[in-house]
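Bumping with the actual sequence this time:
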Amino acid sequence: MIVAIATENNMVAQHFGRCPEYTIYKVDNRSIAEEKVVPNPGHEPGFLPGYLASMGVKCIIAGGMGQRAQSLFVSEGIETYVGISGPVKGVIETYLSGELRPGISSCEHPHGNNGCSS
């Protein structure tokens, strides 16, 4: 299984689409088999769910994402965890232990021109 974490300065990014990079983990039997960091190819509404799906991602973890993006991930068969914060390494360890619990998306609030629609 492949897990992507929206990343900024080794922390979970609060806006999945606008993060500078994604930390990608290949997971086997609840342990990390491979880790790599890929740059965000750019925020374009509707693009990132398909892009991450093409990499084999089955789970995305972020501080927040809009409802449209969450729906697009669901349509790609990708599980989403939002409302997550903290160091990326700690978050993946919590995920692997089965104890990661989603919270309130940091994008569930009004935005001016910085909307989180994707």
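The tokens above came from a reply further down the thread. The domain at 2-96 is CATH 3.30.420.130 (Nucleotidyltransferase; domain 5).
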